[in-house]
Amino acid sequence: MLKFKYFVEQHVFGVCTRIGEKFGIATGSIRLYFIYTTFLTMGSPIIIYLILAFWMNIRKYLRQRNHPTVWEL
After folding, report:
1. Per-residue DSSP letters for 33-62?
2. Phi and psi angles of residue 43, each rounded to the nearest 5 degrees, phi first
């Protein structure tokens, strides 16, 4: 079970972790919130999760683009 947990944590977008760090809430409780609300609302939080993941990746890309690395100088 731990191998599965580490695999998922390495290959997911990190949205719950980022929200937890930002607001000081445990990541596990945020993940449970997303799971429960997904089942209760027939999947609409998945759309919100994917939008947040897309937004985080775009921000990361823009930050890397604005700050050249040592090799580019």
Report:
1. HHHHHHHHTTTHHHHHHHHHHHHHHHHHHH
2. 100, 0
Q: Which of 61, 55, 67 is nearest to 13 (CA)?
A: 55
In the structure encoding, which two tokens stand for residue 67, read together? Answer: 């700050």
Q: Which two tokens stand for residue 29?
A: 């409780």
Helix 27-40 vs helix 44-66: crossing angle, to nearest 10: 140
Residue 27 CA to residue 30 CA, distance in Å, equals: 5
Is pLDDT at 73 greater than 80 in this prediction? no
CA atoms of 39 and 45, how far apart (whole Å): 9
Phi-psi region of 14 (alpha: psi -120 to 50; beta: other; left: phi over 0): left
Q: pTM for this structure?
A: 0.60
Residue whose structure tokens are 């919100």: 48
